[in-house]
Amino acid sequence: MKTKKITVETLVPLPVEKVWTLWTTPEHITKWNFASPEWHSPKAENELHAGGKFNYRMEAKDGSAGFDFEGRYEEVTPNKYIKYKLADGRVAEVVFKPIDNATYIEETFDPEVENSIEMQRDGWQAILENFRNYAERNI
Fold first, then answer.
1. b or e along 4-16 (b: 16 or more beta carbons within 10 Å of the residue's beta carbon)?
2. What pTM, to 2 d.p., does this model score?
3. CATH of 6-35+74-137 given 3.30.300.30, 3.30.530.20, 3.30.420.10, 3.40.50.1860
4. Can you tell me the distance from the alpha carbon of 126 to that of 139, in angstroms, rounded to the nearest whole number?
5. Is pLDDT above 70 for 138?
6. What is the pLDDT of residue 123?
7. Cα–Cα distance for residue pair 102/110, rounded to 1 Å
């Protein structure tokens, strides 16, 4: 049975070019790529082109847990679209759509089987909102 994809979304009050830079540059990724204040992303590597690899380290600040969020890009259209395949074979897509002087971000991904759909949606949405908050502080 094929599991339905999960979609999260947000609106960032910045032009798409600025949003793209904050989303894709390792020095920025480490500042927003975590779901809660108890976690952080101490390292990010990003080869942003079709066939390029990425690896974002996510860890609990107390050292109790951590994992690498990694995969390979399948498609990259600057300021518009990213499609990637995670190391476990799941696929995710991110759409960046300019709306006036803001950017709508829609992220759709294949769920994994270990956690509930709700937990996954909430976690990815929390990271997306963390990104929006970070972007708003970098206007």
1. eebebebebebeb
2. 0.93
3. 3.30.530.20
4. 20
5. yes
6. 94
7. 27
Among candidate residues 135, 124, 137, the one with its CA nearest the CA of residue 24? 135
Tokens 């963390």 appear where?
Answer: 130
Can you give the residue ranges of every domain in the chain? 6-35+74-137
pLDDT digits (tens, 9 = 90+) for 46-89: 999 999 999 999 999 999 999 999 999 999 999 999 999 999 99
Cα 130 to Cα 132: distance, rounded to the nearest angstrom: 5
Whose CA is closest to 95, among 77, 108, 81, 79?
81
89: helix, strand or coil:
coil
Quote the tokens at residue 37: 């204040």
Pairing relation of β-strands 6-12 and 39-46? unpaired
Do the Cβ atoms of 24 and 47 come closer than 8 Å? no
Residue type, 77: T
